[in-house]
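Fold this complex.
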Amino acid sequence: MSSSPKPATQSNTSPWSREPLLKVKDLRAYFFMDEGTVKAVDGVSFEVFPGKVVGIVGESGCGKSVTMKAVLQILEPSARIVSGKVTLRSRFNSLDPNSPEELVELTRLHPNSRKIRKIRGSEIALIPQEPMAAFSPVHTVGDQIMETILLHQDVSKQQARQIAIDVFRSVGISMPEQRIDAYSWELSGGLRQRAIIAMALSCNPRLLIADEPTTAIDVTTQAQILKLLRKLQEERQTSIIFITHDLGVIAQMADEVVVMYLGMVMEKGPVHTIFKAAKHPYTQALLRSIPSVQSTPRLKLPTISGSIAHPFNRPTGCPFHPRCAHFMRGVCDGSQPALAPVAEDHYVSCFLYSSETMSPVEVKTPAAPSTENSQ
Amino acid sequence: MDRVEPNRTPSENAALPKPAVEQIPTPASEELLTAGKDEERISIASNWTLVWWRFRKNKLAVVSTVILLFLMLIVLIPEFFATVDPEQTDARLAFIPVQGIHWLDNGQLKPWVPGVAGKRDPVTLKMIWTTDETQKIYVRFFAPGFSYKLLGLIETDRHLVGAVDAEQADLVYLLGTDRLGRDQWSRLAYATRISMTIGMVSVILSVVLGLLLGGISGYFGGWPDLIIQRLIELLQSLPTIPIWLALTAALPRTWSPEKVFFAITIILALRGWTTLAREVRGRFLSLREEDFVLAAELSGASQARIILVHMIPTFTSHIIATSTLAIPVMIVTETSLSFLGLGMRPPAISWGVLLQEAQNIQTLALAPWLLIPGLVVIIAVLIFNLVGDGLRDAADPYGN
Amino acid sequence: MSVGIQDPEKQTRSAAQRPLLEVRGLKKYFPIHKGMMRKVVNYVRAVDDVSFFVREGETLGLVGESGCGKTTVSRCILRALAPTGGEILFREADDKVTDLSPLDRRGLRRFRKQMQMIFQDPFGSLNPRQTIFEIVSEPLYVNGLRSRADRTDQAAELLKLVGLRPEYMQRYPHAFSGGQRQRIGIARALALHPRLVVADEPVSALDVSVQAQVLNLLLDLQEKLHLTYLFVAHDLSVVKHISDRVCVMYVGKVVEMAATKELFQAPRHPYTAALMMAVPVPDPDQRDVIQDLPGEVASPANPPSGCYFHPRCQFAKDVCRSQTPELREISPDHFVSCHRAEELQLAGIKVNKEH
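Structure:
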């Protein structure tokens, strides 16, 4: 019951020791609204192995946050997982590193089921985007962390408080005994962010999902938080899914990168490959168009023409084709390309490299008539 | 959905087909968010158009609006809807029950109402006048009746419903009569005009006061804000019912109905403006910080222009929705006051005045149809609320 | 401190080098009220003795973290706020220099045409009830151009200038994406042909792929229309891309000001160096280059004594705790406010020739 456990010894008895910790396969989540259907996530696949950091990068409308909400089954009422599978290597006893495991299909679980509530918080924890909005203003931060601890661990209130204090200390909050009784609005931005991370770590999850954790804070504070996350990740061998639009942060934190655009994965692979040898036109264009502190000042940047399509009006076929410099008429606007390997561990979904296509999915919309053609 | 092929500027390393549509050379090709036919409509749709589209989807609100329009028609031309002069009394014809329209006469579509006949009561030897189904008075639409001036301008004598035979015009009592023999249906039409108008005019007055004072409070801040806010708090802390009772009781008995009408609307408005003023103040306070308001200031726009062109239009739909919801409150207030004898008084006719007749149990036992004005009040309040709710939901972009 | 117009050394420079805008000792304090009688108990020193200048035709980047006062400075310059103290000197086309800080609404009227602002939030900077035509032609209408035909022509020109099709004039803002709305905001800012454009974080709210478009547009327009930019941002990489010179602020004060290349390659203030080190570089081969700075950003309501940065500075000495440093020119056109500027050897950012 210590708050910073040693990393789990690779259990030889576990039949899934080579399986990824989290596996997302062909996930599709659609929003059903009066005005039409929004295919927010349309065939996303990736894997997270134990102890690795996966960076999911994309701009607005790419579906990165919706993907995470689908994994945790915390989607809005108007959204539904339409198809696909999400599997987690779940421990029977989440606190025991040597506990036997089972493969749990998260997509099969009901959003309110006991099983998924057991997983949330103790096996998968979320660091949300807005630290201010994540804390209740009428409870102390200590109370909220202890609530999580008491939910998942069989300890007394005194013990929970001590665990909370220890976790605060491990994330670098000075004077944790006093700070634990503070309200979230009494803490500065950086401290609040650390408190959120502490809350996420309080039950030693094996997987941490960080949804734009540094977007709302200053660059110097961001550097501190990134360093902290790296340190914690190495100490506890936690896997992290790092969602951001900042390519600089991805380069610093991720082992693997997943590039998303309008609900689909455009490219995925190891971080060095993506940054040095990206194959997808979108990734290449994105990398070229971002300003960097190391580049020459006042040089015009190469841009991606056009703008991101409106979610209600997604282009047919490859979602990037209206803006793509390598657009092939008749090919790219016909069917959606599927993720295909171009090298070991490096996958691209582009007709320049493979002619594999994604098979469309028949969707029964619940109420409103669908205004999108089924492809 | 048809999709128009978007235009692209050819980039450096692509061999793209030339775009079919002539393009203005631009530094970076920009496409609209959406290019479909539908979206064209949406992009040039003003806020009011969008509000209307959203409102249309609310079937209940749309139906209520239709009924409301019908009521407004009655407000405009109550004389047309009346069958008999509402002031006309006839002691013999007291407490005649609801005649109702019988649509079929021997299987044929020939609407008629039962006539009124007198019968001598064997016990008291008094003449009792009541409906007699054997006597048929045929009625038709757009029948001649008492003459009046349509909208105060055009002389005419047509009414919505009336007897075929002009001689029998005075015998059509669709909703019965009261203790003085006055036709309830006609009186109800006239009452609708007075009650609805009081409701709407007092709300309009409140809106004007609320906008003005709330706007000064929110836009200028400082001392005006402090004074107006304290005034609002003072007015809101006064208990409404005693104040209304006192004010209306203080109106001299000798005043003409028109004077009383104006006085009532003013009294109702004096209390109603405070809530709106607070909301308007809040809106102004938050709008002052908006970038587009600052942009207008930096261009050199005058304060008047900023308030009228930039600030107020952003919440006009909200004001209209809130006002619509305030009207039923005013209507019920006036009805209640008049019911207690403190608001509109006879010979003026309003729903409350009509309901005064239904005040004692004896009358109710004899003539329950005198409560029909209460039903009309309920319907009016209901439809105003439904329309107001529909407007508010349609005007609120964050409802979804 | 004498910087800019009155400096005799500067007078020998060519006319094109003369400052269009000079800010001297600018102060803006916001009172903090407490209690029922709203007594003033303290001040938030949002801008605390800030001085800098912007030459005609150049871009000065104003950079700093939250609470440094850069937004407040930009609002004071445009006189959306009245400064608590200091001077805002603006040079007009006929070389006349006027101090804007004491002017009232009427006095400011003729300056409104010469300086305009581009806002950060593409969704809040356009009136949702107005068409694009009305938004872009509003400055024209307000300044006397009443003829609808003339305004339509000019609005069409402005929209073309920023890369939008004039046919879209009758549409409402809700039909446009964030990047397009920013262009509309830029068109509006240019309607009166201003000489100075203050851009308050114009690309922070935009997607990464759109940022480059808008930055390129701003560079184009500057060349075409001979504009002068004051570019306020918190993102160092964006600032580096667009600025000729950069001014770094911390808790209401200027800590360093220099030409862009020099500032990035050889910063002279520990805070500037720390900022550079904290920016994550989009290159996975350059990990562990990030240095983090201990402590939190100081509060402008309760700043530390002496140099505001001293509690977080690894080079702090006693003098730093007791005396507030002055902004001084330690090499041509390079200003620093640090007691130890001459001694310190700070690491900068090497320019990567591949980019």
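Residues 1-6, 367-375 of chain A have pLDDT under 50 and may be disordered.
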